[in-house]
Specification:
Number of strands: 8
Radius of gyration: 17 Å
Order of helices and strands: EEHHHHEHEHEHEHEHE
Number of domains: 2
Helix content: 40-55%
InterPro entries: HAD-like_hydrolase_sf, HAD-like_sf, HAD_sf, PGP-like_dom2
Catalytic activity: 2-phosphoglycolate + H2O = glycolate + phosphate
Shape: globular
Strand order of the largest sheet: 5-4-1-6-7-8
Number of helices: 9
Strand content: 15-25%
Protein name: phosphoglycolate phosphatase
CATH class of the largest domain: Alpha Beta
Keywords: Metal-binding
Enzyme class: hydrolase
Largest sheet: 6 strands, parallel
CATH superfamily of the largest domain: HAD superfamily/HAD-like
Distance between the termini: 9 Å
CATH architecture of the largest domain: 3-Layer(aba) Sandwich
Length: 215
């Protein structure tokens, strides 16, 4: 696929786009929920896999309020416990996650500004990118608890006029659409590709991975 030279900024999701971390994060959530009945854990993982791009805070809130219907007096303790366990697992998995096929070669060719807008925890993501030497490729790295839509908006408010977002999930597509920017779907690592393809917002711009975008 040929990319237009008119773009003045590229915006990247992280999980399933830069890093092959989607399945690892599902495993992390499964481990963090290990004390709960298996049927509830499966429901949470199904919801999670269909809603990559949303923050962990929303996933845990959904699990406690809608799946197990946690008692109000227990909510905060269980919420904090799950998030702390999940964060610990994520710190480990991010050190193991492979970089997506063709990403380094692609990013080294890009001469315009580049940003990350992810549903992952912002502080955690910045630390991981710094440790793995990926931060050098980006002007800034944004994550949760701010929403992806708002993070994309924050980037565009810097004065860019023609932006392109790379994502693998419906949440990425929605963030691009709400900000009226172009979108490319990287499908190889997506956990719910049909949700993207069947969306009314999807315009058919799809590649397997970054190797399909190399010059």
């Amino acid at each position: 696929m040929h990319l237009s030279s008119d773009y003045d900024v590229f915006i990247f999701d992280c999980d399933g786009v830069i890093l092959d971390s989607n399945q690892l994060k599902l495993n992390a959530m499964e481990n963090a929920l290990g004390q709960y009945p298996v049927q509830y854990v499966r429901s949470c993982l199904d919801y999670f896999s269909k809603n990559f791009g949303r923050s962990r805070y929303l996933h845990v809130e959904h699990f406690l309020k809608n799946i197990i219907q946690c008692k109000p007096e227990n909510y905060q303790d269980e919420y904090d416990d799950i998030l702390n366990k999940y964060a610990g697992y994520c710190t480990l998995l991010y050190k193991e996650a492979e970089i997506n096929t063709g990403f380094i070669e692609f990013i080294q060719q890009v001469k315009i500004d580049k940003f990350v807008a992810s549903g992952s925890d912002e502080d955690e993501l910045r630390n991981v990118f710094s440790e793995r030497g990926l931060d050098i490729y980006f002007s800034e790295i944004y994550g949760s608890p701010e929403s992806k839509t708002n993070n994309v908006k924050k980037i565009l408010e810097r004065g860019y006029t023609k932006a392109l977002m790379f994502g693998d999930a419906l949440g990425d597509l929605v963030a691009a659409e709400k900000n009226k920017i172009d979108f490319i779907f990287l499908s190889e690592l997506s956990t719910a590709p049909d949700l993207v393809r069947e969306s009314a917002f999807f315009k058919g711009n799809e590649v397997k991975n970054f190797s399909n975008l190399l010059l």
